[in-house]
Amino acid sequence: MAGLIRKDDIEAVRNAVKIDEIIGEHVALRPAGIGSLKGLCPFHDERTPSFNVRPHVGMFHCFGCGESGDVISFVQKIDHLPFTEAVEMLAAKAGITLHYEEGGARVRTEEPGKRQRLLDAHRVAEEFYQQQLASPEAHKGRTFLAERGFTQAMCAHFGVGYAPASWDSLTRHLRSKGFTDQEIQISGLGSQGNRGVYDRFRGRLVWPIRDITGATVGFGARRLDDSDKESPKYLNTPETPIYKKSQLLYGLDLAKKTIATEHKVVIVEGYTDVMAAHVAGVTNAVATCGTAFGSEHVKIIRRLLGDHADPAAGVLLSTGRAHGSEVIFTFDGDSAGQKAALRAYGEDQNFAAQTFVAVAPGGQDPCDLRLSQGDQAIVDLVNSRIPLFEFAIRSVLSQMDLRSAEGRVQGLRASAGIVAHIKDRALRAEYTRQLAGWLGMDIPTVEQAIRAAGRVEVISHEARPGEIEMAGAGRPVPVPERRGPEDPVSRIERQALEAVLQHPLYAVGSGFEELDGQSFTVPTHRAVHDAIRAVGGLDAFTQMMRQAEAHFGPGENATLAASRHFVQVVLETAGEFIGPAVTQLAVAPLPVAGEADVRSYCRGVVAAMVRMDLTRKLGEARAALSRLSEDDPTYSEMFRELMRLEQRRQNYTERD
To answer: Who contacts 258 (Cβ-Cβ below 8 Å, separation ≥6)?
Structure first.
């Protein structure tokens, strides 16, 4: 096929790019055994991490949803890219020049709508906007930033720029760089008018919105002329092939490291709030991009937090704070901010973390707070957080006149449903007592109202308009299918295949080549074994090892390259149906305590598999021999086979 990337180059990309670093840009990975990493799966919503990465073999596998593959397929799935574009993107990261099959033209990333081409257009636009911020026309924009306490260096750190008021200044600049009008429109940087394409952003300050890897995929822009009521105050990039506002958080590229290391994220409302927080030292602050905080944002944050505590378990400290991660929302205290907080409340129990709210005295947002009181005021604001449950209850009670009996009853009815939604029984009981105190009512009366509210919620299943709903509250959580205990035979088969696929070098000479398809009782294990044998087994790996050593020289790099190539070839041979089983076996953590134990473990489990197979064959041979008389012509031959099998079994027993 024309335009195919050469296989050698694809293999070079796989070896050059570290899969744990690429996946680590999206998922907080933690050690899960020797040579294995684990985190929350980015392809399905889960509370307990089942997503495993095995850097040694360059593979990943989720034991929850079954997604699996190598670094190329991960990029394909996470960024929704075709194979060629994924390879090209990774090659660019690794500095590898790709070559294409003779007779075929290179697959053009310049084709309108292709991801890399759109990313290039945004990179050029970002550079253009940043340059324009220094122009005389941008004086009003620089004044706006300076009045909010941001220096030139701070603005450069966040990539803040200025879009000239001209109708087509950026469009003309992009054309001069080789971008077509179609590309400019698809990217969201321009729109089609009666007289042609014109700039989307004009006369505005612009903030680049980057994905988690740091690539600019869109812009947020603020109007500078507040007297212009016809145009929106804030304008964002429209939905494009690379800009999905429900899946983006402003500042995440800068905040992700702190979020992952401190297990804490601060969610603010605007771009300048993110800037103010970071400048003040709260470098785990992010904001949504022109949309409400939603379930997709929850998934992104949970993956980065890497927190897998079950909120239903509710292990609490004496202070009422839970072990694990923290999600802290900051709002400006006005009615819109409170509504945003209550929307966030609806997402709370989707987090395996404790969620808090921080509202500044006087209702200032973080940017204004820093301007009026300094950097420390933002740090103090974050430290003054209160649990989101408490904030939600107090927000409801603040709308009631608690000085009257009628107001207190209304407050009880309005807040009982909130407490009833709390899954953690101990925490629910504590808030029951607190609510009784806030209302000045006895605890049994409040408990009865909360139980009644809980029963109503379970029966109704659907929230009525205006009600506050906790996602998933009162509904059964799906329980993963439980499997019975693994029998010893299938366990040894699995462990032997894991050893061969993960550390083929250690399995060479261990006896694996003596096994045949009938040695495996589990059909899937038999199919994986057959795929290994079909590529030439460990003899093929030995040849790959020689080739790798000729290229890299003897050492770890050669072993890694040969091991990854071996697994890749087995995967291709296994096909669509058996391939996932190969990946699962290649990624599964090994039950060893230290790196020094890996070699002996691998050789030991393969030898155990061979002994088990020999024991089975010995049993079959004895049974066959017992059915023969000594006069039978085949008796002597069968007896010699029995002795040969017994000798082989003894040899493997003596190895231990």
So the answer is: 264, 283, 284
Q: How many CB atoms lie within 10 A of CB 77?
A: 16
What pLDDT score was predicted for residue 122?
96
Q: Has residue 115 got a pLDDT over 90?
A: no
Distance, CA of 47 to CA of 299 (rounded, Å): 10
**H or E segment at 644?**
helix 635-655
**Cβ atoms 341, 363 nearer than 8 A:** no
Under 8 Å between Cβ of 358 and 384? yes
- The answer to whether 138 and 162 have CB atoms below 8 angstroms apart is yes
Tell me: pLDDT of 597 over 70.
yes
Chain center to CA of 640:
59
Residues in the chain, total: 656
The encoded tokens of residue 562 equal 């040969």
> Which contiguous run of DSSP H or E holds residue 275?
helix 271-279
pTM for the complete prediction? 0.67
Cβ neighbours of 201 (radius 10 Å): 24
Do residues 307 and 259 touch, judged by C-beta distance below 8 A? no
- pLDDT digits over 203-243, tens only? 999 999 999 888 999 999 999 987 776 788 999 999 998 99
Phi, psi at 593, each rounded to 5°:
-90, -30
| Structure token pair of residue 487 | 């029998």
| CA distance linking residue 524 with residue 584, whole number of Å | 12
Sheet strands (E) in 337-406: 353-359, 386-387
Question: How does strand 264-268 pair with strand 285-288?
Answer: parallel
CA–CA dist 355, 264 (Å, integer): 10
State pLDDT tens for residues 178-190. 999 999 999 999 9
Averaged pLDDT, 337-350: 55
The whole-angstrom separation of Cα 534 and Cα 431 is 63
Dihedral (C-alpha) 109, 111, 113, 117: value to the nearest 10 degrees?
Answer: 40
3-state secondary structure 6-69: CHHHHHHHHHHCCHHHHHHCCCCCEECCCCCEEECCCCCCCCCCCEEEECCCCEEEECCCCCEE
pLDDT tens sequence across 403-458:
889 889 998 988 888 888 887 788 889 999 999 999 999 999 999 988 888 776 54
Q: Which two tokens stand for residue 201?
A: 């952003």
Is the CB of residue 293 less than 8 Å from the CB of residue 344?
yes
Residue-wise burial string across 349-380, b where 16 or more C-beta atoms lie within 10 A, e elsewhere: bbbbbbbbbbbbeeebbbbbbbbebebebbeb
**Among 600, 561, 564, which residue's Cα sits nearest to residue 583?**
564
| Range from 141-155, 351-365, 585-599 that averages highest in pLDDT | 141-155
Helices and strands (H, E) in the chain, number of each type: 26, 17
Q: In terms of DSSP bridges, do strands 249-250 and 264-268 run parallel, antiparallel, or are they unpaired?
A: unpaired
Burial of residue 562 (CB within 10 Å: 0-12, 13-18, 19+) is buried
3-state secondary structure 510-576: CCHHHCCHHHCCCHHHHHHHHHHHHCCHHHHHHHHHHHHHHHHCCCHHHHHHHHHHHHHHHHHHHHH
pLDDT classification of 636: cutoffs 50, 70, 90: low
**pLDDT mean over 247-254:** 93
Tell me how far apart the alpha carbons of residues 451 and 233 are, in angstroms, rounded to a whole number. 46
Residue 263, classed as helix, strand or coil, is coil
